[in-house]
Amino acid sequence: MLREVLRQVPFARTGYRAIRCVGVGSARLAVSLILSTIDRSAWLRGLAFDALKQDLVLAPGPESFVVSTRDKAIGRDIYANAEFDFAKLRTAIRLAGLSDRNADLLFVDIGANIGPICIPVIKRGLAARALAIEPEPLNRKLLAANAILNDVSDRIEVFPVALGAAPGTVTFELSDRNFGDHRIRSKVEASEDRYREAERDTVEVEMTTLDRVLEPETAPNVLLWLDTQGYEGFVLKGATATLKQRHPMVLEFWPYGMKRSGSFESLLECLCESDYETFVDLEDTEATRTALTGAALTELYERLGEDGRFTDILVL
Predict the structure, then answer these.
(1) Do the Cβ atoms of 156 and 106 come closer than 8 Å?
(2) Is the pTM of this model over 0.85?
(3) Domain boundaries, position 20
(4) Which of 27, 49, 94, 249 is the most exposed place for a label (fewest CB within 10 A)?
């Protein structure tokens, strides 16, 4: 897998220096050497990313990631900033009281993308093992390659499925610019396509439930990380047994995505009928714990609005 992916990477830059050049002319070599000496700011690295012509490149940082230059969201952010959203993960581990339990912590990454969360979680010793759920074929291919590249593939199990309320087959729509915004296509349609959803290509993917994925697991400490582009409510519908364990759980909370999928009512039902008691908005610098009620979640929904804003909440 790793060799197959790296054959598509014309040159790789690790530690901000050009260290390898594969099948490229002198002009591209000169560009890679120039890139190795310019200011290392995220802004300049972002500009460099935008100028790249090849499809796949190796992003520098504490972990090495092969990213697609067509991905102007997560791929670009990893290339420019050397990581993506990892500060929120550290905050969630601290607030959940899991900082001293990494020796047996199981990290469950639902919507794992190319591994920007689960790979550093394992490589930096914040969890012992990870389950990575990623249904989109290219993301999953890069996830597997990146796990090998960072020498953590023996501790990350990849599941090539989507998660929902019941097993089956679903249509998955693909964003051409944001590879973190691939989504299950729902029959519930909104009046506007803010992200040109109607124009997206689609693939058919297998769906199962979180309960089925976790059924054989006996880990005493689990952290759930859900980023499913507004489908979180339906993922929880298929997690009845899992929710009874009351594992700390981070959810993306995106009203626009929930509006399109029709999942907000399911999210309210699953959380408010569970034994979870509080949630923390991870964008809140005060880390205020709020009682987990339908009114509080509805207030957060209305405060963010349906114009595309989102946050992540830690549910405890």
Answers:
(1) no
(2) yes
(3) 2-81
(4) 27
